[in-house]
């Protein structure tokens, strides 16, 4: 089973929790259902979880609900842990570079804290 953790910044905030808190109840429920499906299905279907190309080993949780596209970005910590560090509502076909850079910055903070 895959463990899913949310990145916590040095000041104690979790950007993914803050993002989820900004969604309405049905949207948040769909994202949480998708996370549960990812945790319980091995390997997780690529419709829900996919490794991003041309990044620093980032992974993307993909959720579509009621015409909205929600994305949670993070990385693998070992083989059985996914750390999610950033969430956004996707409005373009390609993932905006700024969203990737934000996640890569948080990954560096996480890796430096772990050492």
List keywords for this structure.
115 residues; alpha+beta; 5-stranded mixed sheet
Topology:
Layout: E1 3-6, H1 15-21, H2 25-40, E2 49-51, E3 58-65, E4 68-76, E5 81-90, H3 97-114
Parallel strand pairs: 1-5
Antiparallel strand pairs: 2-3, 3-4, 4-5
Oligomer: single chain
How does the helix and strand content classify structurally? alpha+beta
Order of helices and strands: EHHEEEEH
**Number of helical runs?**
3
The termini sit apart by 25 Å
Strand runs, count: 5
Overall CATH architecture: 2-Layer Sandwich
Measured as a percent range, the helix fraction is 25-40%
Named CATH topology: YaeB-like fold
Fraction of residues in β-strands:
25-35%
Number of domains: 1
Q: What form results from the Cα inertia axes?
A: globular
Low-pLDDT segments, ≥5 res:
none
> Largest sheet at a glance?
5 strands, mixed
Overall pLDDT metric: 94
Sheet with the most strands: spatial strand order: 1-5-4-3-2
What is the CATH first-level class name?
A: Alpha Beta
Radius of gyration: 13 Å
Description of the molecule:
The protein is α+β, with helices and mostly antiparallel strands and about 120 residues long. It has a single domain, classed as 2-Layer Sandwich (YaeB-like fold). The protein has helices at about 15-20, 25-40, 95-115; strands at about 5, 50, 60-65, 70-75, 80-90. The chain has a five-stranded mixed β-sheet, sandwiched between helices. A hairpin with a 2-residue loop joins strand 3 (about 60-65) and strand 4. It is globular. It starts with a strand and ends with a helix.
């Amino acid at each position: 089973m895959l463990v899913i953790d949310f990145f916590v910044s040095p000041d104690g905030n979790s950007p993914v929790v803050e993002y989820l808190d900004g969604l309405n109840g049905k949207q948040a429920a769909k994202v949480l259902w998708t996370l549960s499906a990812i945790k319980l299905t091995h390997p997780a279907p690529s419709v829900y979880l996919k490794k991003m190309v041309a990044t620093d080993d980032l992974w993307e949780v993909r959720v579509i609900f009621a015409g909205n596209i929600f994305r949670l970005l993070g990385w693998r910590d070992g083989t059985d842990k996914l750390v999610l560090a950033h969430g956004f509502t996707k409005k373009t076909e390609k993932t905006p570079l700024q969203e990737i850079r934000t996640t890569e910055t948080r990954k560096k903070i996480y890796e430096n804290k772990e050492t």
